[in-house]
Amino acid sequence: MWSKQERSDEAGAPYVGHGGTFKNTLAEIDTPDPSVVYDGGFYYMTFTHGGTDIMVMKSRTLDFRAAERKVVWRPPVGAAYSANLWAPEIQHVRGKWYIYFAADDGDNANHRMYALEAATDDPLGEYAFQGQITDETDKWAIDGLVMEQEDRLYFVWSGWEGDVNEAQNTYIAPMSDPLTISGPRVLLSRPDLEWEKAGGPPYINEGQSVLQRDGRVHIVYSGAGSWTPYYSLGVLSLREGGDPLRADDWSKHPEPLLAMNAEAGVYGPGHNSFAPSPDGTETWLVYHATSGESDGWANRKARAAKVGWTGGGLPDFGKPQPLAAAIEAPSGMGVLRAEEARAEGDALVFSHIASTVETTVPVLLQYRLAEGGAGRIALSSSAGEAVAAELEATAPGETGYAYAELLLPEGGGELRAQASGGAELLALELPRFEAEWGEWLGGAEESENVHASRGAAALLHEPGDGVRLPNVRVPQSGAYTVSVAVLNPADGARLELSAGGTKRTLDIEPQERGELRVYEAELKLSAGANAIELTARAGSLRVDWVDIWIRPGG
Hints:
This protein is mostly beta strands. Helices cover 1% and strands 51% of the residues. The strands form eleven sheets. Strands 35, 37, 38, 40, 43 and 45 form a six-stranded antiparallel β-sheet that branches. The protein has a five-stranded antiparallel β-sheet with strand order 1-32-29-34-26, with no helix packed on it. Strands 11, 12, 13, 14 and 15 form a five-stranded antiparallel β-sheet that branches. A hairpin with a 5-residue loop joins β23 and β24 (315-316). The longest helix is centred in the middle third of the chain and has 4 residues, at 194-197. The chain starts with a strand and ends in a 5-residue tail after the last strand. Residues 1-10 have low confidence and may be disordered.
């Protein structure tokens, strides 16, 4: 255990977590039409799950590979909504969870919108079918969702004007409650731009989502054929003070905001949703795309990108990034807050701790102490005995930080923390950085390995190959222990670690194939963000993960 009272950041900026990076895609399975929300410390995703049922996944981070997965609803046989369940949209509207989805009886011409209502406050809990969501025309409809603006509800969807599959338009209608359309539909947009017509007919406006910022309202939608690489994201914007039900109060941006990037190997980016970073300071775009120009509806997997903004107030999604791109994690991701834990007596229980292998991890504790207190925090998992962190005193109202070391079982599970002696646990983190999520140097690449923590590691083929971890955040400047997990090294392999001008070289000993061995060095890091490079200086080796911490007694 290591404990220290400190400022959050020597430059005065608050400490928002250990940072890190991730890489697209967000799951190993096809996840077309992703709808993602954040609630109570977890991300939830639903998507078109083969068109047969409604599945929801739950994860601490945007990495859904180890997420809990549950089919929350299956349609009955022989109903008007038994087949082709498309694009479920999970939303929290006026105190309840709803899932809106399109379905038909096996004939696409009969696609209509339907809704499920949650029976509990758990997005992964039970849902009850609540029937069709329709306006008076009862025309073909898909991709519907609720928009809330100035305490009023609206339903936004993609539909046909008549009964022929010629074009999909964007419609909006008022709602009296989350299940009832209460007025006529209003046509907001036809697919009349050249980019929207690619791959048609039929011509497409679909996959609508709502983005609100600083009083402005935007409907981001997908245009062009979803079966083509030209599928892209466009935007409709409501003028300030405008009426959502007046078509003239909306304007359409002439060019797509996100389109295929053949150089990066990203095709058909579209059908998106938006989710906040865990600390609420950022907005993230979640969309699907394919990796092949001819993939069509196959291989559509969810990806994420941080949303920026133009000087004119439009969202800026940038260009789709290649799968090898290391993306800085959403702000606050990986910080497990005490108020989001489950209370069991005097203990706090943090669930859904992901770990594919049994492993010992550092735990960074954020705490406060009562005046004059000398508290401690006990930690335990199902893998072994509890460990205790003795805490240094903090000034009144200030946050202290302490490190401990804990064994996690294969499969992860729950972590239990119990504070005593006047200590208050604010949050905890596991400051582990997956090497395969870093930036490649030289000819380094990802390598599948069943012994690695996520089933993959960074493979450094030869001297000069390496991996750069660009977003390593620590709460205070100082000397930190860098623990590096190595697999399958060549005889005589050497690995150099560097950060901020400090370099350390590790001599890697011979290991059995599949054996994971941890090597350690000390590097000086600055409060806030740091970049750490790991470079092969002799031989080849695989790097599984890197832990950044201060070893107990250090």
